[in-house]
UniProtKB/TrEMBL annotation:
Bias (Basic and acidic residues) ranges: 184-195
SUPFAM superfamilies linked: Hypothetical protein TM0160 (SSF103256)
Gene3D superfamilies: Bifunctional nuclease domain
Gene Ontology molecular function, alphabetical: nuclease activity
Annotated protein name in UniProt: Bifunctional nuclease family protein
Region feature Disordered, mapped onto this chain: 170-195
Domain BFN: 3-131
Matches recorded under InterPro entries: BFN_sf, Bi_nuclease_dom
Top-level taxonomic group: Bacteria
Length: 195
């Protein structure tokens, strides 16, 4: 199992139904993983993100207290599986034991402990996707453009990289297309005179 660290980018709503999700970002691949959660869990996470501290112990505090008394703490919080839109999280205790958890509970615990969240690579490959910087900024108020290659043939560096990877997997290289300047190859095809 290969676990990859992801960035937490808060609670967001999407679509006309205003479904709630946590946006996680696989920075290395500039891909987004939405983890859909209930409105109640979203409200609790959002309140915590905005500095709310309950007067009495909430679910996260109670869970942390029990874990600390029984095992000495939490060593990792991971999202380890995904099936038909349902994610499965794992809370790894200091003694190595793993506890099965809902992603919303695991994320709340991670935020309370200020711990990194890791996601199984297969889950990221299956459930994450590339979203252009413009869409991320328009719909979610997020911008990551500085980290993505600025110049590209189509203006979309990720799409160009995906296309290049696909062409290489088919056994083609840049030399097959005439390199940087392929005007000699295409001039005759477009009815233009060759020089």
């Amino acid at each position: 199992m290969t676990l990859i660290p992801v960035e937490y980018h808060g609670i967001h709503t999407a679509g006309p139904e205003q479904f709630t999700c946590v946006l996680l970002r696989w920075a290395e691949q500039n891909r987004i993983l939405p983890v859909w959660i209930s409105p109640i869990a979203a409200a609790e996470l959002d309140a915590r993100d905005n500095g709310f501290t309950p007067r009495r112990p909430g679910s996260a505090e109670l869970l942390l207290d029990v874990i600390n008394r029984s095992s000495g703490g939490v060593s990792a919080i991971n999202i380890i599986s995904h099936f038909e839109g349902v994610f499965i999280a794992s809370i790894v205790l200091s003694d190595g034991e793993e506890i099965d958890a809902r992603p919303s509970d695991a994320l709340l615990l991670a935020r309370s402990l200020e711990m990194d969240i890791h996601v199984e690579e297969d889950v990221l490959n299956q459930a994450s996707f590339f979203v252009s910087d413009d869409i991320l900024e328009e719909y979610f108020g997020l911008r990551f453009g500085d980290e993505v290659e600025a110049s590209s043939a189509s203006g979309d560096a990720q799409a160009d990289a995906d296309f290049e990877q696909m062409m290489r997997s088919l056994g083609m290289s840049e030399a097959d297309f005439g390199g940087e300047d392929d005007t000699d190859v295409t001039k005759g095809d477009n009815g233009e005179e060759e020089v």
